[in-house]
Every structure is written in structure tokens, then in C-alpha cells.
Amino acid sequence: MKGCQFLIAYRCGSNIEYSIVGFKAANFKHFTGLHSSLPPDVFYHRLINHMLSPEDFSFDSLGNAQQKLAVLPQLHNLFYSHTLRGVFNRSGIFLQADYAVGNTAGSYSVAFCNGKGYDYPVSLYNEDVRKLTVDTTKVLAVWKRHFGEKTFSENTYHASDVDPDELLRVFQEK
């Protein structure tokens, strides 16, 4: 997912809306729940290069890291299967987020903040997206591109009752 943007089409009432989300190395540290004084990019690069040592991070006393790390291996499937999207409800969670996307099995969710040009992930949850959101709706289709590319060319998921080419055409006309 790192280095990629995803275009998400979903129903909002009788309209079809779109969100663009992006994942950079700097976003990954949030997904682990680990505490570290390392800058996010350094943390990510040390981790993927097997250079992260126990001195580089710590666990909190609330078990957040354990919950997030339990679902982190599933994250790469998020935009390749049935998903739901809803407005973040902030019910007892002290996090600034605008919406969340999660799998329909209810095992994990990702919270996003609206950004300039694309939205960015702020947290990973070992939680059903329907418990974190209101106005939850199914995602109709998802496309992928790498940062720097101008067009979304790879359709990674679409519901069986939608034409992904038509949805993409409507987005491009906006």
C-alpha cells in the first residue's frame, strides 16, 4: 500500500461520492501503536530493512499496540475486497478523524483525515467499522495508482452490481 493512492467510490444517499486516500511511509508508524522517538520515515525504513531494535520502540500499558499489530497483516487486503465507509463518530475515541473504512467481516478499520489532494490514514483499529462510524455505506468500487501517476488505472475491487468503468468515467468528468 505504501506509495499508492486509492480512489474509493461509495453511495451517499442517492448520490455517488468519491474519496482519494494515500499511504506513505510516514503513515505506517500510526498503524503499529508502538511508541518511538524515531521519525515516522526512519521507523518505517528500519522496520522493513530488519534494523528496528527493541530499544527503538515501546508498548503502552493499554494494549493498543497488541490490538493493532494483531490486524496489521490484514491491512493490505482492505481495498481488494468488500468494504464499508462511514463518518467517524468519535464515540469515546480521542482521535481526530473524518471517516473510516473497514472490511465487512468487522475485524479491522482504518480512520482517515481529509487532506489537501488526498486523505491520509491516522489510525488502524481492531474494530468493526460499523461501531466507529455513522452513515455507514458499502464501497462500490476502488481503483489504485502510484503517487506521481495522473490516472487511476487498476480497479482493485468493485461490487458485482456496478460497472467500474462507468463509475471511473463519472469521477474523471468531475
Proportion of β residues? Answer: 25-35%
**What is the terminal-to-terminal distance?**
26 Å
- The helix tally amounts to 5
Order of helices and strands: EEHHHEEEEHEEH
Low-confidence stretches: none
Summing up helix and strand content along with how strands pair, one would put the structural category as alpha+beta
Instruction: Please identify the oligomeric state.
Output: single chain
The main sheet comes to: 8 strands, antiparallel
Overall 3D shape:
globular
* Quantity of strands, as a count: 8
Q: What is the helix content?
A: 10-25%
Radius of gyration: 16 Å
Mean pLDDT: 90
Domain module count:
1
Textual characterization of the structure:
With 174 residues, this protein is α+β, with helices and mostly antiparallel strands. The chain has helices at 25-32, 40-48, 64-71, 129-132, 164-173, and strands spanning 4-12, 15-23, 83-88, 99-103, 109-113, 120-125, 133-146, 154-158. Strands 1, 2, 3, 4, 5, 6, 7 and 8 form an eight-stranded antiparallel sheet that branches. A hairpin with a 7-residue loop joins β7 and β8. The protein is globular and about 50 Å long. The two termini are 26 Å apart.
Q: Could you name the key traits of this structure?
A:
22% helix; alpha+beta; eight-stranded antiparallel beta sheet; 5 helices; globular; 174 residues
Summarize the entry for a quick read.
By secondary structure, the chain is of the alpha+beta class. The protein has helices at residues 25-32, 40-48, 64-71, 129-132, 164-173; strands spanning 4-12, 15-23, 83-88, 99-103, 109-113, 120-125, 133-146, 154-158.
